[in-house]
TrEMBL record:
The chain crosses the membrane at residues 6-22, 29-53, 65-90. The keyword Transmembrane applies. This is Lipopolysaccharide N-acetylglucosaminyl transferase. Gene3D superfamilies: Tetratricopeptide repeat domain. Keywords: Membrane, Transmembrane, Transmembrane helix.
Amino acid sequence: MAVGKLGIGGIAAQIAALALLARAGHSTALLLSFLLTQGLAAAMIAMVLWRLLPRRFRVPFAWSYGYLFAFCFLVPLAGGMICVGSLLIARFFPGRRPTAGIGLVGLPEFVTHLVSRVTHGGGARLRAQLGNTRAPLPERMTALVAMQSMPARTSSPVLRDLLADSADDVRLLAYGMLDGAEKQLTQKILVELPRLEDAQDDRERGEINKRLADLYWELIYQNLVQGDVYRYTADQAERHARAALEVDADQAGLWYMRGRLALTRHEPAQARAWLERAEQLGFARERTLPLMAEAAYLERDYAAVRAILLSFDSPSPLPLVRPLLRYWQS
């Protein structure tokens, strides 16, 4: 009912405005009266047209209504008629909505050998409990103790964040867990260093250097070192890996390690060369290709990045790699 009254009022005001315009001539008063009447007519007709618009076109109100008002004001009578005609055409001849991107997807096959890797989101729940400072302290302590069963690479960043926690018990336990994991690896390094000095031949020296490189790398991989200690640990891992490869150059794992260390030093060309060497010696391609793509990206060789990731043919890529594959392979 309100829309009908507005429509009738708008049409009447529009006719009155056109009548004033026809009689205006050189009269300023009649011209001003026409503009006021035309503005009133445009306001009422625009409101009627706005009410007739589909719901998704009504927002934002200021823009949609303002456009209709301006059109009806600047194009007397014809503006409203064009809008009504457009609405009728859209109503009786609707456009076809595209259906691209919609299709049937089959159910994934059940892979039995991956069942042992399922964690059922335990890590996420533990992080949520530890991050909730309003939770009771015993519950947070229980969650913190339960993190000991998680891989150190996953738990170390969480424990490091807890070193600034407001609860003393949480801070102390988190520090103790981090310190314990670091000391465990450091003790093994201290055992191997004297053996390296007492090695009798190159073969024994190469084996010890390999173990030391692995231990130093484990400190980095488990996120147990930062800052200057991180740089020192990376240098030691590189030094012992290089020494081990001088004895036996066919150790793919050490070439892979050196490639990753080169990336941390922002040496992409060297990293690509060593990762390619690791792949030639039989290292898994699904692990070397993402790092080679990263190295190419750092060199701003985007064509190489795309070519490398297009050659990625692993049936089950890691979750962190899937978004990269979707982006660069599309």
